[in-house]
Amino acid sequence: MLKADFHMHTHYSPDSGMSPETLVARCLKVGLNTIAVTDHNTIEGALAVQRLAPFTVIIGEEVGSAQGEITGLFLQETIPRGLPPVETAKRIKDQGGLVSIPHPFDRFRREVIRRQALDDILPYADIVEVFNARNNFDADNRKAYEFADEHGLLTSGVSDAHASIELGRTYVEMPEFDGTPEGFKQALAQGTIVARKMNPLIHVLTTFYRARSKLRRRLSRRTG
User: Fold this and answer.
1) DSSP code of 124?
2) Is the terminal CB of the chain with fewer CB neighbours within 10 Å at N or C?
3) How many CB atoms lie within 10 A of CB 161?
């Protein structure tokens, strides 16, 4: 059985401080052997991890559409941010990718997809994150599960890790698959979610990373 996690970030995301090297080392330590790296609005972090990792790395991206975040898995190219939600989902599908809906009902995150947009992309959706370890309220995860069940969508549990300490706590145990999106879906349908919430204080670390990234960009502009 695979020990898999399909939502995590490297320092290619402005709110993460985790290098590709650190991410790979932590995955090896905790036994994660299939992952998707889903940096914000870029696949460069996923490609960097894939070059280093001795295990399966799915190229992903958490795309900031015009009405909230949508995750693409099995991508070849970065999806531009700011597009309409349906256009974002179509571009993921055009690459042969899978559309995953991240933390759809988290009441605290500003980037959560809006309800109308969620309904609009349903024809393209494959997976719903029914457990996100960074959700503060169990009710938000339960609502995601009920939504996935109502619409017959696959479910996943993810760490949404931005720091190495988060990796290995939440994952999916699932059979091996042939490396294709279709094979992935078949294996995920047989998966079992191992779910452990993170302490809400982890968001403080994310805020620190984001502020540090902004400061570095300002300093770069001044000296550039």
Assistant:
1) G
2) C
3) 29
- Token pair for residue 145? 């599960």
Domain count for the chain, please give it.
1
166-189 b/e with 16+ CB inside 10 Å = b?
bbbbbbbebeebeeebeebeebbe
Q: How far apart are CA 125 and CA 144, in angstroms?
A: 13
Structural domain for 17, as ranges: 2-223
Span 157-188, pLDDT tens digits:
999 999 999 999 999 999 999 999 999 999 99
Distance between CA atoms of residues 67 and 85, nearest Å: 6
pTM score of the predicted model: 0.91
Q: Pairing between strand 192-194 and 127-132?
A: unpaired
Helices (DSSP H) in the chain: which residue ranges? 20-30, 44-52, 85-94, 115-120, 138-151, 181-188, 202-223
Question: CA dist 155 to 112, 114, 221, Å?
Answer: 17, 19, 43
Q: What CATH number does the domain containing 52 carry?
A: 3.20.20.140
The C-alpha atoms of residue 153 and residue 63 are separated, in whole angstroms, by: 20
Greatest pairwise CA separation for the chain in angstroms: 54
